[in-house]
Amino acid sequence: MESDLLKYELWFTKLDISNTSKNRLSDCLYNAKNIYNSNKTQLLSTNIINEKVADKIIDNKDNLDIDKLYEKFQSYNQKLVTRPMAHFPEKLKVISNAPYGIFYIGTFPEKFDKCVSIVGARRCSEYGRWAAKEIAGALARRGYIIVSGMALGIDNESHIGALNEDGITVAVLGCGVDICYPRNNINTYVQIQKKGA
């Protein structure tokens, strides 16, 4: 997506309205640039949002320098995929309150057809660690993308199992893609980025 459109997608992703409203507006108006360029009457005519939300959108775009927002975004080693983009996961599009945008570092998988999420206890047994690593590795060898949260314990071992098999693994982080938490998992965090996921 060209940078001119991406800055609008970034603005809309960061806008403080519900994901359900974002997704429905995007489906109706096709992309964030069209939403940004809409006036209050046009936004209300979609029958998706109320006047309070329309005012919030208008106030936000009037009081935010979208170019500075985009410059700051570019200064980080981050990328963004949003709902209107071709490689946004299809499985997320059917969930009404799915995130409008996903920030990531590395390479975003083209397809999520074959993916398995593995999550579990942070304080797990040695057997649990071994089993998570083995199961993730076996699935990765068969072409499955392993999705987990990079927490201590089962999550981290699942990522390691996939990485050991040169598989694709995706870490869903609750604190932002530029923050490695917990710090103990810094090696996993770096390896996930290096191996392209």
Describe what this molecule looks like in 3D.
With 197 residues, the chain is mainly alpha-helical. The chain has two domains: 102 residues, no CATH class; 80 residues, Rossmann fold. Helix content is 49%, strand content 9%. It has ten helices and five strands, in the order ααααααβαββαβαβα. Strands 3-4-5 form a three-stranded parallel β-sheet, covered by helices on one side. It has a two-stranded antiparallel sheet with strand order 1-2. Strand 3, helix 8 and strand 4 form a beta-alpha-beta unit. It starts with a helix and ends with a helix.
Radius of gyration: 19 Å
Total strand count, please?
Answer: 5
Shape: elongated
Q: Order of helices and strands, N to C?
A: HHHHHHEHEEHEHEH
Short description:
The protein is mainly α. The protein contains ten helices and five strands; from the N terminus they run ααααααβαββαβαβα. It has helices at 3-14, 19-29, 32-36, 40-44, 51-63, 66-75, 90-93, 126-141, 154-164, 186-194; strands at 79-82, 101-104, 115-117, 145-148, 169-171.
Relevant terms:
197 residues, mainly alpha, Rossmann fold, 3-stranded parallel beta sheet, two-stranded antiparallel ribbon, 5 strands
Note the topology.
Layout (H helix, E strand, L loop, with lengths): L2 H12 L4 H11 L2 H5 L3 H5 L6 H13 L2 H10 L3 E4 L7 H4 L7 E4 L10 E3 L8 H16 L3 E4 L5 H11 L4 E3 L14 H9 L3
Parallel strand pairs: 3-4, 4-5
Antiparallel strand pairs: 1-2
Helix pairs in contact: 1-6, 8-9
